[in-house]
Amino acid sequence: MTDLSAFPIASRWPAQHPDRLQLYSFPTPNGVKVSFALEEIGLPYEAHLVNIGKDESWTPEFLSLNPNGKIPAIVDPDGPGGKPLGLFESGAILLYLAEKTGKLLPADPARRYETVQWVFFQMGGIGPMFGQLGFFHKFAGKEIADKRPLERYANESKRLLGVLETRLNGRQWIMDDDYTIADISMLGWVRTLKVFYEASQLVGLDSLPNVNRWLDKGLERPASQRGLNIPPRP
C-alpha cells in the first residue's frame, strides 16, 4: 500500500485511495484546469476540497505542499522513477500530466513548444489580468473611486482576448485540430470572465465569434462538464 505520510497535507486531507494521484483543489478557473485535464486523460485520481473561502490553503498542511498558498496542488504517488512527487502551479501540473501520460500535448517537438508557449500566455497574461478585472469589476474594487485600475485591466483583457480571437481564426482549437493543455489552461478563465465576472460587455466578448465558438465547444466536452465541479463546491 502506498505511504503518503511524508506529505503533511495527507494528514489533513487523508487519502482513501493512496495509490491514486491526489488532487487538492477548488473549482476556480485555476482549479478546473487540472480537473479538466485529469478527466480528459482518464488517469485515476482522488480529489480533495480545499475550501479557499475558509482560508484552508493557508493552513500549515497545505503550505507544506505549496508554500505560495494557492490551489491547485497534487501529490502523485507514482512520480518520476516510481517515487511520490508533490507539485504546485496549475501550468506546471498540466505540463506534468501531459508528459506523464503522452496526452494533450503534441509529440512533435516544435508543436510541443508551440503548445507550451500558449500555456505560458495564459499563465502570464490571461489569468492575472482577468483575475484583476474580476476584482475591480465585481468585487471590492467597485468601491474604489478611481476607475483607472478597472480601465487598465479591462483594456488589457480586451487586448488578450483579441490575441486569442486572431489565433483561433480558421482553427478548431489553439493547436489546430489537436485539443491540448493550451485550450484547457484558458477555457475556465474565459468562462469565468463571461459567466461569473459578468464582464462580457465590458471587454467586448460578444463581438469575438472565434472565441465564443471555441469556448462553447470546449465546455461541451464531457470531461469539461464533469471537471467544472471537481471537487464539488461545499
Descriptive report:
The chain has 234 residues and is α+β, with helices and mostly antiparallel strands. The protein folds into 2 domains: 9-103, 3-Layer(aba) Sandwich (Glutaredoxin), CATH 3.40.30; 109-224, Glutathione S-transferase Yfyf (Class Pi), Chain A, domain 2 (Up-down Bundle), CATH 1.20.1050. It is 50% helix and 8% strand. It contains 10 helices and 4 strands; from the N terminus they run H-E-H-E-H-E-E-H-H-H-H-H-H-H. A 4-stranded mixed beta sheet has the order 2-1-3-4, with helices on one face. Helix 2 (31-41) links the parallel strand 1 (21-25) and strand 2. Helix 2 (31-41) runs parallel beside helix 4 and helix 2 crosses helix 7. The radius of gyration is 18 Å and the shape is globular. The mean pLDDT is 96.
Short note summarizing the structure:
One of its GO terms (molecular function) is transferase activity. The protein is of the alpha+beta class and 234 residues long.
Tally of distinct domains: 2
Shape: globular
Instruction: Give Rg in angstroms.
Output: 18 Å
Can you give the helix content as a percent range? Answer: 40-55%
Task: Assign the CATH topology of the largest domain.
Answer: Glutathione S-transferase Yfyf (Class Pi), Chain A, domain 2
Q: pLDDT under 50 segments (min length 5)? A: none
Mean pLDDT: 96
Write down the secondary-structure element order. HEHEHEEHHHHHHH
Structural class: alpha+beta
Tell me the CATH architecture of the largest domain: Up-down Bundle
CATH class identity of the largest domain: Mainly Alpha
Main-sheet strand order equals 2-1-3-4
Largest sheet: 4 strands, mixed
Tally the helices: what do you get?
Answer: 10
How far the N terminus sits from the C terminus, by CA atoms, comes to 30 Å
Percent of residues in β-strands: 5-15%
Count the E strands: 4
